[in-house]
Model the fold of this input.
Amino acid sequence: MEIMDERSRKVLCAVVQSYINFPDPVGSRAVTKRYSFGLSPATIRNIMADLEEMGFLLQPHTSAGRVPTDRGYRFYVDSLVEGRDDHLNVEILQEVYEKLQTLRNNMDVLLSETTRTLSMLSHYLGIAMSPKVNMTTLKRIELLKYKDDKVVVILFTDEGLIKNKVVSLESEISQKDLNRIGGYLNSEFSGHALDEIRRKVMREMSREKTRCDSLILNAMRICRDALSIPYSDLFVSGLSEVLDLPDFSDLKKIRELSRAIEDKHTIIRLLDNLSEFDGVQILIGSENSMDEMKKLSVVVSTCREGNRPIGVVGIIGPTRMNYAKAIYIVDNTARFITNMLAER
Done:
């Protein structure tokens, strides 16, 4: 954290908090009126000028007040996390968490509803990412005849994920044979990690085909193709909440936000990298790798089942974000889901 004297720290945090509360450039007189620092407007003005030279504040126009830079937000957020006050109203979260509790056995529905909850509580975008399918554990597999040479494969995992995929076969197959294949796959692989199953299936299929009968070969093909789902799923809610904010009052900013949301694979990669860390992770503006997100902030936390990441929940909003509230909501939601999964 940048070394500065206590007066400068207080003034910087006051400017950031003022700008979060009121989206207008902050002047020295506004800081004097809103905060009891015992300093004159002239002294505060000089401190703000020094903070601008250090890169923490920016003056949009010569006669205007100042606004925080990404560096200023980062200093504020780091100070906030160090001296964080968690004594916010827990009752705000209790009712929505009780609703989420009823969805504990279906991870996709749980995460989708979680994004709506995060958006409703924060008035920003709620986001959630499911675990990678190959990192989950097979509970059971069901096979349904779709067309002559096509099968609908439904995967149920111990983590509550339900995935389906249409798989093509080389020849027609009956539902009776599909039931036999499903029974075989469940007896062989239930309780195993999907990544482990995929590796075993590939080894089996690399052997001489004549060593397996046609039913087993079809079972292997179905299993191989059904497990080729490389990405996690991304859930996003609350675009209308964000568009009501003054930060997105012009069309250009709306387009940037829309492009960022549409590029789901890039966001998934971003969240996947953040999922490796414990606790709340915060990316502010230019700290984001995506060009479309350079004016946005991301606050996320990983949900876990034991030591395994089981999903990521968080918020995307403008850099002028109420970070204290966002951190509190995201942290508590991730903790709630982690504890709920531990009780299953």
Summary: Residues 323-342 form the longest helix (20 residues). Residues 132 and 232 are 5 Å apart (CA to CA). The longest strand covers residues 308-318. The chain has three domains: 6-69, 91-131+232-342, 134-226.
